[in-house]
Amino acid sequence: MHLVNIDDVEMRYGGPEGTLAVSGLNVKMDRGEFVAVVGPSGCGKSTLMKLTTGLQRPQKGAVVVAGQEVTKPISIVGMAFQNPIMLPWRTTLDNILLPLEIVEKHRRRIRTHRKEYIERAEHLLELVGLKGFGPKYPWQLSGGMQQRANLCRALIHEPELLMLDEPFGALDAFTREELWCVIRDLHAESDVTVMLVTHDLRESAFLADRILVLSARPGRVIADHRVPFERPRNLDLLFDNDFNHLVQDLHAEIARARDAA
Amino acid sequence: MSGARKGPTFIQLAPWIYTAALFLLWEGAVRLFDLPVTFLPAPTRIAEAIVQYWGPIWTNSLQTLYTTLLGFVLAMVGGLAIGLLIGWSRSIYAGLYPLMIGFNAIPKVAVVPILIIWFGIGSIPAIITAFLISFFPIVVNVATGLATIEPETEDILRALGAKKMDIMIKVGIPRSMPYFFASLKVAITLAFVGSVLSETVGSNTGLGNMMAAAQSRFNVPLVFAGLVMLAIEGIVMYAIMAWVERRMTGWAHRSSM
Ligand SMILES: Nc1ncnc2c1ncn2[C@@H]1O[C@H](COP(=O)(O)OP(=O)(O)O)[C@@H](O)[C@H]1O
Ligand SMILES: [Mg+2]
Fold it and tell me: Which domains are assigned to chain A?
């Protein structure tokens, strides 16, 4: 039984004459799996995320998550985007607690069980290397620190499915590699299922169990690579020959997909 | 730190120095060119008038302050409510916005006679004019704050099952507060324009009325005394609004929003 099953989905923005974003899209994800999605820009990667989380509805095909057809937003997901968009009037801790004030299961409890939730948030802060930064305001944090806090926010309600849309695109190379390790450890420590959209092929090969390559718009899956490297992985892998071969193959596939359009 | 001390002190004193310089120049020019008092009275002459007519100046200043503040408070409440409503719904926005633009384009001086027909001579037309003229910038600012919520923020919250009301309370309203408080500074000065306008066109109280009456008696120093009182009230109210803004939304000045 797959956690995510996207079956022959077609999705068009802006009415019958609008942009056909994805077509004939099939994606299956097992529980606990880490799937990376790569492809030419504008090919429908973010659309795939929105379909999976119920923010958009397909015109054709079905999206089933955790055994249920997705007809409206589902709260078992946590999301993080390239732009961390912390709310500047809340401290980092209060930003991280925000999802708990929304999700049905928690919003009734947060007032009475605040202490327990704060402990959970502080545990997450420690995991991402931000211990003690809870009372700081977002503008007091660097870009990389904000993105770490953003990950905490995405995880605070213990989602089954973590959706990351180019989360490290705006960061420098070293910060990005640090955050790869953070994500790797978060995934190893829990049984969360992860979908990571990225344009960084090394990032996808370092982190994922499987890499899906999308065609140019309208997006569909044109290749599904199983990433063979043993876990736990460390950054030395980036200099491994097989690793670089995989990255080169991915690169060639995407270049072909772009030219075919 | 102590080296940087000198700059701020001068900057803090600058408003007083510039104001004093303006009055000195004014006084000097009037004396140098021997301007008649019915054309431009010197600041000392205006000060005399303020002392001489202090009784009526004080009551009329309070009257103007009262109508202005009442109109302003109504505009604050109404502007916030309409701004949130407009930001809430696209269709309300589409329906109300052109109406409000049209309404705002009407010169308020043309509205005052109608208000007097409806409500008679008195405080009410001044309050309503102050309200009408200061309402619009508040609405526009609040609606702007709501309209510029990042779509990603909305996506994240909607994906968690947030209703429109949740997004409004958790993000929309706090986010529009800096815009709201910034608009109050503009609105309070406009409110004075509205109330004095109404008092000048048709009223038997307030600084506007007092100045109109003084003008018809060629008591030019008293006209200027009224102007000085208005300027003082305007500056004080503006300063209070600026202070409130800093107190309420300090975060907006520190972050790069
Ligand atoms: N809200 C929208 N309205 C209209 N067109 C959209 C919208 N969102 C995305 N698109 C279009 O759909 C296509 C796929 O977009 P997206 O999924 O964001 O691509 P990617 O994330 O792969 O860069 C693009 O051509 C984009 O212009
Ligand atoms: Mg995208």
Answer: 4-76+160-260 (3.40.50.300), 88-159 (no CATH)
**How close is the nearest chain A Cα to the Cα of B180, in Å?**
15
Min Cα distance B153 → chain A (Å) is 7
pLDDT for A166 equals: 93
Alpha-carbon separation of residue B95 from A188, B80, B82 (angstroms): 53, 18, 12
Q: Which amino acid is at A234?
A: N
The secondary structure of residue B171, as a DSSP letter, is I
CA distances from B163 to B109, B174, B194 (A): 44, 17, 40
CB-based contact B239:B183 (threshold 8 Å): no
Ligand nearest to the CA of A43: 1
Mean pLDDT of all residues in B15-38: 94
Ligand nearest to the CA of A166: 2
Structural element, H or E, at residue B123: helix B123-147
**Which residues lie below 8 Å from residue B227, measured CB to CB, with a gap of 6+?**
B211
Give the residue among A259, A261, A257, A260 at the shortest CA–CA distance from A38.
A257
For B169, the token pair is: 């309370």
Convert the pLDDT of each residue in B31-51 to its tens digit: 999 999 999 999 999 999 999
Amino acid at A245: H
Residue A164, SS3? strand
**Which residue type sits at B116?**
I
Give exposure, B87-103, as e/b (b: 16+ Cβ within 10 Å): bbeeeebeebeeebeee
- Structure pTM? 0.83
